[in-house]
Amino acid sequence: MHTKVFLIIIAIGVGLSSPALGDNAGLGISGAVDLYGGFGNNGPSQFDVLREAELIVYSPADYLFDGRLGMAAHLEGGDYFFELHEAFLSSSKLIPRSRVKVGQFFLGVGRLNQIHRHDWAFITAPKAHTRFFDQEGVLDLGVEFGTLFPLPFFLDLTVGVTSGRKYGHVHGGGSTPRVPTHYLRLVTYADLAQSSGFQVGLNYLGRVANDGTKKFMLGLDLVGKWRDNQRLAFLLQSEAWYRAETPPGNPVEREFSVYLYPQYGFTDSLYLGLRGDLLVNMDSNEVDHNIVPTLSWKPSEFTIFRAAYNFQGTRRSGVVTAASNYAELQAIFMLGAHPAHIF
Prior knowledge:
This protein has about 350 residues and is mainly beta. It has helices at about 1-15, 125-130, and strands at about 30-40, 45-60, 65-75, 80-90, 100-105, 140-150, 155-160, 180-190, 195-210, 215-230, 230-245, 255-265, 270-280, 285-300, 305-315, 320-335. Helix content is about 5%, strand content about 60%.
């Protein structure tokens, strides 16, 4: 059922992008397909998974607002579950130096949560993301406002409030929280030589779930890109998050997680990166760690092929309690001009 619905939507998208319709007043159609395979010790054991297929339709709605509709199908339980990822209006013309977004969208916090999974620099999410957000990202229905301060240096503030009915990978409506999800992000950016740059973001997120569980999160993310002409010579990306959850009638549960991903570009199309993840339960002293070397080949901006190997382990009081090693393969191809993401 879900597969048929998604195929119908793909057909509609192809029809909308037909040359016979002209430029559709700025209408853009973009598709992305993510193929995944993994095999190893205590890890995934499939080499033939269509992990995700995504379709995005975007266009100016009028002279003030832009609209976006994003749909995706994920493999779950042997079939593809169709869901609406994004459906929002946005504008950068209502208020000088400011942005407004209303509808359903991925929350504007952190680094990975604002980027579609097929645009990540690695195959699967680090522990810092899967534990505190989701395998892909947190989306919800609400409003987000951003403004660039009139200062001699770059300083941008984003604040958002969403219904809180969705947190993590939630299908359907979810439950109404006692306090809606609310967040803010403060970002600064510095230009470097040869079109290079470095960005640092400070993040806060809070909510109180329907059962009274309080969530408090603080995060730091950074990304640096050093270019040699058009080649991305070096990429440095990292996020660190602290989370405190307080279930009703129970003590606070505290966790800290961080990942670091340096990547070197040998050529315009060949890249080698090494990601290290760390997840610390601050109450039980249990530590999860993950080392992931990743090789990426990008023959063009529309195709990406990756190979990675995961070394995962769990330690409690210095003793290894669990371990797994597995290889991963990924192939991504895109159709149409993909909307630009943040730096």
